[in-house]
Design goal:
Blueprint: E1 6-17, E2 25-36, E3 40-44, H1 51-58, E4 66-71, E5 74-75, H2 81-90, E6 92-95, H3 107-112, H4 121-125, H5 127-137, H6 153-165, E7 171-175, H7 183-200, E8 203-207, H8 211-214, E9 219-224, E10 227-230
Parallel strand pairs: 3-8, 3-9, 6-7, 7-8
Antiparallel strand pairs: 1-2, 1-4, 4-5, 9-10
Helix pairs in contact: 6-7
């Protein structure tokens, strides 16, 4: 259940690549956005509309040209690189179109990788049991010692979702998570993301071209010419 207190807030955010240089490229223009705690949100738009850029700004992987990005009532611009890295590791989980699993590591080892950098000893010590529970939850309980090359595309992406959740983040950002999957696997992954959002309370923001996935989210927004507009068909 989403709360009224926003987890993420963007205030008049703009992004221009090559700002101050001839031929600079405007991507985002005055974005105002609040994402409530526990919400599920889909962001759609044509290729090149700035969807991934917007996700990167929320995830501290990039910074705006102007405007403010807030996470947990804290302006990200006030934080140094080390503090931002801690936030990425502890508070944000990322799922991309490519799974980025390490081919030489087992599924369990891949999932546990983010815990190596956490300073929270309780979280780190409990990670193996948590990983096994999550992997069992997503149907990979019998694949712990398999390597990525022994898994299907859908299984690899499910393992990537568990890796993104292993440090119990408050925010899960998914960039075209079903883009490389067949229809059946994409359907299962979309359902899984929604179920995990409801079960764990993690705030979920998904960038997607897939209307079937977007309609599963509680809210749908579209990016058009660098500006955010309400979408249609979400929550069905």
């Amino acid at each position: 259940m989403a709360s009224a207190d926003p987890l993420v807030r963007l205030v008049q955010v703009t992004k221009r690549y090559g700002a101050g240089l001839p031929g600079s490229v405007p991507v985002l223009a005055g974005i105002d956005l609040e994402v409530a705690r526990g919400e599920s949100l889909a962001i759609m738009g044509p290729s090149g509309s700035g969807k991934s850029t917007l996700l990167n700004l929320m995830g501290t992987l990039d910074s705006p040209t102007s405007g403010e990005v807030w996470l947990e009532n804290e302006p990200l611009a006030s934080l140094d690189a080390a503090a931002l890295a801690r936030i990425r590791n502890r508070q944000i989980g990322f799922v991309f179109q490519a799974h980025y699993l390490l081919p030489q590591c087992t599924v369990l080892e891949n999932v546990l990788m983010p815990t190596l950098a956490t300073e929270n000893e309780v979280l780190r010590d409990g990670a193996p049991d948590r990983a096994r529970r999550l992997l069992d939850r997503v149907g990979l309980g019998d694949r712990l010692r398999h390597r990525p090359g022994q898994l299907s595309g859908g299984e690899r992406q499910r393992a990537a979702v568990v890796r993104a959740l292993i440090n119990e983040p408050r925010l899960l950002l998914a960039d075209e998570p079903t883009g490389a999957l067949d229809t059946a696997s994409a359907e299962r992954l979309g359902q899984l993301l929604i179920e995990l959002n409801r079960e764990t309370g993690v705030t979920l923001v998904v960038v997607t071209h897939a209307m079937t996935l977007a309609r599963r989210m509680g809210r749908l927004l579209e990016l058009r010419e660098g500006r955010m507009v309400p979408g249609s068909g979400a929550g069905s």
